[in-house]
Amino acid sequence: MSLYAQLSRRQAKGQPIRIGLIGAGKFGAMYLSQVPRTPGVHLVGIADLSPDNARLNLSRVGWDAARSAATSLDDALARGTTHVGEDWRALVRHPAIDLIVECTGHPIAAVEHCLAAFAEGKHVVNVTVEADAFCGPLLARRAEEAGVVYSLAFGDQPAMICDLVDWARTCGFPVVAAGRGHKWLPHFCESTPETVWGYYGLSPEQAARGGLNPKMFNSFLDGSKPSIESTAVANATGLAVPSNGLQYPPASIADIPFVTRPIVEGGQLERKGMVEVVSSLEKDGRVIPYDIRMGVWVTVEGESEYIRNCFEEYNAHTDPSGRYFTLYKRWHLIGLEVGLSVASVALRREATGVAQCWQADVVATAKRDLAVGERLDGEGGYTVWGKLLPAKKSVAIGGLPLGLAHDVKLVRPVARGQCVSWDDVAIDTTTDAYRLRREMEGLFER
Is 215 inside a domain boundary? Predict the structure, then answer.
């Protein structure tokens, strides 16, 4: 039975999936806009550090004020409405809630939220992929031990890439490469919140009018977010990662099967079976027509002559050899699509992407020469960007994961372009996030 049919049946029986949302910012608001239009779900509660901002976002996406006027979680359950408050622990602990959507964007907090939800027997759809990037394999293990499902969020590119990889493998195709698109030039890795709008193509006035967060947008531009998302995909699918970071080959959609072949066959991959990100800009900055900037893709191989003949007979667009074919989605709708993960996890107990191994890591890397005493300001900031590396290489160099490089003091200087190590910083060792990461390093090193 389809997910929509199952949701409709739950609606008819008065047995909706009961959901708690932690974090009602931009991504959360996009999901909230779809909740009233989705049968079989009841958003029981929203926990946000600023309930007033959460209510503002509810109004912005079209919720009637009465819909979120519940005075408590119990009141929300009794009336079929939603409670808005600050207490995420109350949300996680309430026995009637089936599933938590973690949507804070704060990786250290997200780890705490996920672990607490598992302990209370709650499934988790984790939108905060930054947390998954540095300890996703162990979060997945903790969920399995608790008998619940932990999942990446559909609508975000990692889950959508995982879906394409699963399609390919289920159909019997070897996956040559998979990934997303991005607007990229090498110097973007040094971008800061002050330079982001010029590179991004917006004026400061346009950004201010839209209420856009420069640090968040810069995390995409400087390569941190593509590295984070590629890490999540590699760990969920077992695909390998480039030995020294993403290469960002420029290509139109038509050229993706050409450039995502191995180097030995005229492409730009180190070898078959890797994640990569395709740039929408030529190396000289020219915009590539019909790009994949906002989309996702998978390149597969037709191993037999018969399969390659089928590609030709059905007009599938391949590389010149006829051996490599790319399937793609040109757009992703971010929070508007999270409902697919909620339904899949709650109804089928199937994750829409979950770490199966530890293949990849994102290491904090200096944007400029950094001095002793400076504080790292994390993803999208002024001090570091995230570099994708094989997990074994990250562990070998003692790399500091980008997700833990927030408000951390340097105790040794770090040169521009150098990866930051654990020994370079004084870090809070009391957080769940730190402990989980260090435990994961010990487990996967064996």
Answer: no
